[in-house]
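Table S2 (text version). Query chain:
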Amino acid sequence: MKYIGIIFAMDEELNELLKFLKIEKEYSIFDLKFYEGIIGNAYCVLVKSGVGKVNAARCCQILIDNIKVDYIFNIGVAGGISNDLNIGDIIIGKSLVQHDFDITAFNHEKGYIPNVGTYIDCDQYLVNIAKKCIDKFNLGVIASGDIFCTELKMGEKINNKFGALCVEMEGASIAQVCYLSNIPFLVLRSISDTPNNDNVITYEEFLKSSSKTIALSMKKIIDELSNDKL
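Corresponding structure-token output:
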């Protein structure tokens, strides 16, 4: 049986997938609450990290150190920074980048992390599973940084610099931890808003529906992983 770890930033994201989980046990490690049980034919553990790169990385490492998962997923909502995206669109992460990591003073490009690189690729097997399960999606770069992007110019700058489709605050740090720990991972996002003067309002309005959209997609992926013979 596959053992799947799934990390969320917020309760709204966690609660939508928790509806599908037949909980067998709940416990806390430090201040993080873990929910273990069955979704379909897969054994899953769900946990909320909290918002931001440090919280996400900490949670991911605790998950890896304490629970022997086969795969790690990070799912939730994101702000769209591509003009081709609409609210509710699904993004399958091809690669992740930390748009706010800056050691350009040492002649490295923006986003470059020593011993890691600039872009961290999601596991190709998991990408292929997601592409098979989700009818309509966009595949591309997801950018992470410790800022809620409210300015259109900032979104355009990140899009132009990194070719990113969306921006959020956790995925790339989870990608870095999984890369360094040699754990297959995938980041999935549903678009809840776009950078403009009203995107905080838009985000609050569509957080729940976008969380539901990505949870339904994750459920399909779990079912496919359960049935896959690899």
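Notes on Table S2: DSSP finds six helices and ten strands in the chain. The mean pLDDT is 93.
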